Amino acid sequence: MTPQELQVGLYRLSDNGLILGQRLSAWCGHGPALEEDIALTNTALDYLGQATLVLKQVAVQEGLGRDEDDHAFLRDSRQYHNLLICELPNGDYGFTIARQYLFSAWYRLFLEKLSTVSDEFMAGFAAKALKEVRYHHQHASDWVLRMGDGTTESHTRIQQALNVLWAYTGEFFEFDATDAALVETGCWVDSGSLKSAWEKEVRALLESATLVVPADTWFQTGGRSGRHTEHMGHLLAEMQYLQRTYPGAKW
Q1: Is the confidence at residue 102, as pLDDT, over 80?
Q2: Is pTM beyond 0.90 here?
Q3: Residue 1 has pLDDT above 90, yes or no
Q4: What would the 3-class secondary structure string for the chain be?
Q5: Tell me, what CATH number does 72's domain have?
Q6: How far is CA 123 from the centre of its chain?
Q7: How many domains does one find in the chain?
Q8: What pLDDT is attached to residue 243?
């Protein structure tokens, strides 16, 4: 494993939380109910806290005197390695919940396995993050059931969201040369091995929610390698505005 491969692996771990946390933070003050407003805001904070821990490790591994803020705010689009599903606009509440469910169902499985690797930092991070992600997963699962088996409108909205989002789920299980190098050194997980458990759980929940599992189709890809949707540039422009306008600004 090269230092570059380790950095990409750490970015893949940090950037999902960083970008999805940024998306979810937009619900602050706009949730459909006060309890949900608080729930999604807390979830966003959890993801941003996880990203901070990993980006601090990136800075240590790099050894160039940069900190986690530099890595969060001063990269270009192609230097981010998050899953594409994380950068998609929030849409309505049904779309946000469907995205949260599909992602957290995978992320929980990923962290459970990552917590068993030999690398001390990776295992420790996974064990800590898992406590939060289990709540995220339960919260999203409850809402999928409630919306799918609720009113005609709630059912239609979340089914439409699933139909769009399904094409982004194949990226959860990609495995490339960088992943292989990280697995070989005991600090990563073969995501492909999680697919069966993820599909079994997701299909069972959607069936309970009277929702139809979308048909497998061509899956979107590229985020983990730095190739993003047109939405990423707009998200970064907002997220990075302060640091780009006032370099080195501190509160």
Answers
A1: yes
A2: yes
A3: no
A4: CCHHHHHHHHHHHHHHHHHHHHHHHCCCCCCCCHHHHHHHHHHHHHHHHHHHHHHHHHHHHHCCCCCHHHHHHCCCHHHCCCCHHHHCCCCCHHHHHHHHHHHHHHHHHHHHHHCCCCCHHHHHHHHHHHHHHHHHHHHHHHHHHHHHCCCHHHHHHHHHHHHHHHHHHHHHHCCCHHHHHHHHCCCCCCHHHHHHHHHHHHHHHHHHCCCCCCCCCCCCCCHHHCCCCCHHHHHHHHHCHHHHHCCCCCC
A5: 1.20.1260.10
A6: 18
A7: 1
A8: 87
For all residues of the chain together, what is the average pLDDT? 95
Angstrom CA distances, 242 to 20, 73, 181, 207, 251, stand at 19, 9, 36, 45, 11
pLDDT at 223 over 70: yes
The Cα 74–Cα 236 span in angstroms is 10
Q: CA 72 → CA 55, 64, 130, 131, 201, distances in Å?
A: 7, 15, 22, 23, 33
pLDDT tier for residue 33 given thresholds of 50, 70 and 90: confident
pLDDT, tens digit (0-9, with 9 covering 90-100), for 174-191 = 999 999 999 999 999 999
Range of the domain at 103: 3-210+221-245
CA distance 84 to 169: 9
Please check the confidence at residue 32 and state whether its pLDDT lies above 90: no
Whether residue 215 lies inside any domain: the answer is no
